[in-house]
């Protein structure tokens, strides 16, 4: 009870506040997000459920600092501060260290092997901070993650030599290598068959049980059901109301 009272006063770890995003398709502006609000507390696993084209990837890219809201189109906050005012190195650092990002189509670098792919954000982070010894930490972190994901026999293989499920495990290892506080997953099972996808969700559940905050977007209600909380993205806004599709 005491914990509950304290928890209600803790600011969210990540928050989208009134986020608007318009794309200019030809000469026609299309407002995809029309004031989307999403508040996530540390340790939560939230699923954002929305149909294809509803703006799920757009919302994730904005929350991950990979793209920006419209001018005067709300803000993304991390740890009670807007990420949009932190340009340059600090935004790089947000993308590299505070959050991890997992894509539907893995986005692994084909020229690099499994170990190098997983280690990459660790190397980038250390160029920025200049701590050479931290590279050893990144190597160790990648090795430990890949081992726990059952990939230790695959370290020298290229992504093209792996199954879809294995590729996504590598991508998740890469996303977690710098020990981010939040994992953003954009349809992490969208390219996988049901049982392989279930394995990926089990892996997310394990990390979540260990304290990781997870935000996952999906069009699949069964996938969303694995989360603690489901919200819906409809007509450019996030709602937790039960809706008929
Ligand atoms: N870079 C872009 N330029 C123009 N239109 C885009 C761009 N990205 C997404 N869109 C459009 O925005 C809408 C939402 O896309 P998206 O966020 O990818 O939805 P979802 O991930 O839910 O399928 C779609 O109509 C899509 O065509
Ligand atoms: Mg998408």
Task: Explain what the structure shows.
The protein is an alpha/beta fold. It has a domain at 2-107 and 180-239: P-loop containing nucleotide triphosphate hydrolases (Rossmann fold, 3-Layer(aba) Sandwich). The chain contains 8 helices and 10 strands. The protein has a 6-stranded mixed beta sheet with strand order 6-7-8-3-9-10, sandwiched between helices. The protein has a 4-stranded antiparallel beta sheet with strand order 2-1-4-5, with helices on one face. Strand 4 (75-78) and strand 5 form a beta hairpin. The longest helix is centred in the middle third of the chain and has 16 residues, at 114-129. It is globular. Bound molecules: adenosine-5'-diphosphate (ADP) and magnesium ion.
SSE map:
Elements: H1 2-7, E1 14-25, E2 28-40, E3 45-49, H2 56-63, E4 75-78, E5 81-82, H3 88-98, E6 99-102, H4 114-129, H5 133-148, H6 164-176, E7 182-186, H7 194-209, E8 213-218, H8 221-224, E9 229-234, E10 237-239
Parallel strand pairs: 3-8, 3-9, 6-7, 7-8
Antiparallel strand pairs: 1-2, 1-4, 4-5, 9-10
Helix pairs in contact: 3-4, 4-5, 4-6, 6-7
Bound molecules: adenosine-5'-diphosphate (ADP) and magnesium ion (MG).
Outline of the structure:
The protein is α/β, with parallel strands linked by helices and 245 residues long. It contains eight helices and ten strands.
């Amino acid at each position: 009870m005491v914990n509950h009272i304290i928890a209600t006063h803790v600011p969210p770890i990540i928050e989208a506040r009134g986020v608007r995003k318009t794309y200019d398709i030809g000469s026609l502006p299309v407002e995809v997000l029309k004031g989307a609000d999403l508040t996530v507390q540390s340790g939560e696993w939230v699923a954002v459920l929305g149909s294809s084209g509803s703006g799920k990837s757009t919302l994730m890219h904005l929350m991950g600092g990979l793209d920006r809201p419209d001018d005067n189109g709300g803000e993304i906050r991390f740890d009670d501060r807007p990420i949009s005012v932190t340009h340059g190195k600090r935004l790089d650092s947000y993308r590299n260290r505070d959050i991890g990002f997992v894509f539907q189509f893995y986005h692994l670098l084909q020229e690099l092997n499994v170990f190098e792919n997983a280690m990459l954000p660790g190397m980038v982070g250390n160029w920025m901070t200049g701590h050479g010894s931290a590279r050893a930490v990144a190597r160790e972190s990648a090795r430990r993650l890949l081992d726990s994901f059952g990939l230790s026999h695959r370290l020298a293989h290229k992504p093209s030599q792996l199954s879809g499920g294995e590729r996504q495990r590598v991508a998740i290892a890469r996303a977690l290598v710098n020990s981010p506080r939040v994992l953003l997953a954009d349809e992490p099972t969208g390219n996988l068959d049901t049982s392989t996808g279930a394995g990926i969700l089990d892996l997310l559940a394990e990390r979540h049980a260990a304290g990781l905050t997870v935000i996952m977007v999906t069009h699949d209600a069964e996938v969303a059901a694995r989360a603690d909380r489901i919200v819906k993205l409809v007509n450019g806004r996030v709602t937790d109301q039960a809706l008929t599709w």
